[in-house]
Design goal:
Layout (H helix, E strand, L loop, with lengths): L1 E5 L8 H10 L4 E4 L17 H11 L5 E3 L12 H21 L3 E4 L9 H15 L7 E5 L12 H10 L6 E6 H7 L7 H9 L7 E5 L2 E2 L10 E2 L8 H8 L8 E4 L4 E2 L6 E2 L2 H10 L9
């Protein structure tokens, strides 16, 4: 079981600070954005303190981490050519930054077709990925399973499979399973995860999974809303998520918590829950008073 969480990257320490944050949660891995997920402002690679971060990772036994692309990348947008072109150009830069930082995985939301329909959106995503990926691309793009809100593409394994089928260098593609998104898209994460994986294996082998976003959901099955909840405090529940975390099939796959910050009893601040959630998942016992 390889457990970690989303961590920040800012200030003077940059990636070194990201590794320190992950270690403070007793994590085995982590996920970061190379800058704010809502914009394209980025520091120069030389300012990211990559060598310091990688050195600390090596010293403390963290072997790998994941980078998440910003939300503003939308390869599925055919309505605004400028939006599409920005997505292609910035995705190419994010791949370069991911490689420079020493990660092999860039998680990407497939995109939203903004009302033009899934077929057109998928064709546009394929076009964009074919512009970016080459036979020598050293980083894999992990397409994330989406909740299906609005005009999101990637709400089903079938849609993701169609993207794979159209991309010339599909060996550079992977999947990021998000448990909250799967639940909200209508997959039975809680009640029949074995059947969910049987459906997944109709399209992809387990080796295609680059990482798992392990999140509870605030929403009922099929709500298509995408609202994360803390582990054990949502509609999926602790037992189902703990079984996924301990599933032998996933033993070598990084699992990333993206659960919301919490109001800890006795504190005025909203604090990261990750150390508590990671410990609870490793122990395999749910504590309903974990944040008291």
């Amino acid at each position: 079981m390889i457990l970690g969480s989303h961590v920040g990257m800012s200030g003077k320490e940059m990636m070194l600070g990201s590794v320190k944050e992950a270690l403070s949660y007793q994590a085995d891995t982590f996920m970061l954005y190379t800058g704010a997920p809502q914009n394209t402002r980025r520091k120069e690679i030389s300012e990211l303190r990559i060598e310091d971060g990688l050195s600390l990772m090596k010293d403390r036994g963290i072997k790998d981490f994941v980078v998440h692309a910003p939300y503003i990348i939308n390869l599925a947008n055919t309505v605004n050519p400028d939006t599409y072109q920005l997505a292609v150009e910035f995705l190419r830069k994010e791949l370069e930054r991911t490689e420079a930082m020493g990660s092999h995985t860039l998680v990407l939301h497939p995109g939203s077709h903004v009302g033009e329909g899934a077929d057109i959106g998928i064709a546009s995503i394929v076009k964009g990925l074919n512009e970016v990926l080459t036979k020598d691309t050293p980083v894999n793009i992990a397409l994330e399973t989406m909740a299906g809100k609005g005009s999101e593409v990637g709400r089903s394994f079938e849609e993701l499979s169609r993207i794979f089928e159209g991309v010339n260098y599909s060996d550079k593609l992977r999947i990021c399973l998000d448990t909250c998104h799967l639940n909200d898209a209508g997959y039975k994460v809680k009640d029949d995860f074995d059947a969910l994986m049987d459906e997944f294996h109709r399209f992809f082998p387990t080796e295609t999974i680059a990482c798992i976003h392990l999140n509870d959901s605030l929403n009922p099955l099929g709500a298509a809303k995408d609202r994360h909840a803390n582990i054990g405090f949502g509609t999926i529940g602790f037992d189902a998520l703990c079984k996924i975390a301990h599933r032998e099939e996933f033993s070598d796959i990084p699992m990333i918590l993206e659960t919301p910050y919490c109001q800890i009893a006795g504190s005025e601040e909203r604090l990261a829950p990750y150390a508590l959630e990671i410990a609870m998942l490793r122990k395999g016992v749910f504590d309903p008073h974990i944040f008291d």
